[in-house]
Design goal:
The relative contact order is 0.17. It contains two helices and two strands, in the order H-H-E-E. The chain has helices at 10-23, 27-38, and strands at 43-45, 58-60. It has a two-stranded parallel ribbon. It has one domain. Helix 1 crosses helix 2. It has 63 residues and is mainly alpha-helical.
């Protein structure tokens, strides 16, 4: 499995706050989104419909 643990930074925290306001996300979703943006991750597998409103993100629905 190709997995990398990344650190949490002030930049990610600030982006998360913006995403909470911009997309009306819960804090944990906003942190995920900010971290993904920072590390150029553009795909997510989730059943959480809140991520569907993010234009640069491809949402995959698990079965």
């Amino acid at each position: 499995m190709n997995l990398e643990i990344v650190s949490f930074s002030d930049l990610i925290f600030e982006k998360a706050l913006r995403f909470m306001k911009q997309h009306r996300l819960m804090s944990n979703d906003a942190v995920h989104l900010a971290t993904m943006k920072r590390y150029r991750v553009t795909n997510i597998a989730t059943n959480d419909r809140d991520f569907e409103q993010v234009e640069w993100l491809k949402v995959w629905k698990p079965r």
